[in-house]
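Email to the structure team, subject: Dynein heavy chain region D6 P-loop domain-containing protein model.

Hi all, the expression group asked for a predicted structure before they design truncation constructs. Nothing fancy, just the tokens so they can compare against earlier work. One-line instruction: predict Dynein heavy chain region D6 P-loop domain-containing protein, return tokens.
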Amino acid sequence: MLLEEQWYDLDMPESVDFPSGYSEKLATFQILLLLRCFRVDRVYRAISNYITLILGESYITPPVISLGALSCDIVNYSPRTKIGAFISPLQVFSQSLDNILEQSTPHMPVVFILSPGSDPTSDLMKLAELSLSGSGRFKYLSLGQGQERIALTLLETAIARGQWLMLQNCHLLVTFLRTLEKELDEMAKPHPDFRLWLTTDPTPTFPIGILQRSLKVVTEPPNGLKLNLHSTYFKLRSQSLDNCVHPAFRSLVYVLAFFHAVVQVSET
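Reply from the structure team: attached below.
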């Protein structure tokens, strides 16, 4: 049994028994409270371990939102459905933009609530190339002062012609969103291919009317080495790995993905 001082100086005290026999005397949650008193720097990791123990690892693993999923032998990992309450209001959970598209309708915009470092634009452009016949049917505009008239013109055209319209940085022009909400309310018979995609930083001023009618997706960059590797492979498609038959290709992809994950983790 470790003495209190020895336990306190450990790098990961949450991974060993609490001294003085408290691990046997107290419930797991009570051990968290003691850890909070003595080693507040390890509470986050301890809570993650607690959630994994009680609910399962899927509850601490953020979903990867991408163009498609891939199960790779290189990392010996098969993605599972892991989205909890990230997509609403239909409570239909998916791991790819393909499935999000299936759940959306011309009357139901998709709102991406972004966290730093996340941007779905490139994946949406790739999805548009695969899903829409004909070029130039994916339009996007970064909102800002003076962009209201342009945005309304693009919206009217997209509704009539069945285009996809992505309005970025909606939090920068919240006043326009009131007008956008009115336009959506008055939209009678949109083209069946029409889709509206909105991106915004978290903001309390986002119109509740748009949120209530939208499919909401919360995105966040992966945290940790394992999740970064998962994110990289999740965004690859099978054809990308099959196009090169060189026996070292997959190993090189893994090494590059691992290096990228290490760099991403070190930056955070």
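Strands lie at 110-113, 138-142, 164-168, 195-200, 215-218. Residues 249-267 form the longest helix (19 residues). Ping us if the truncation boundaries need rechecking.
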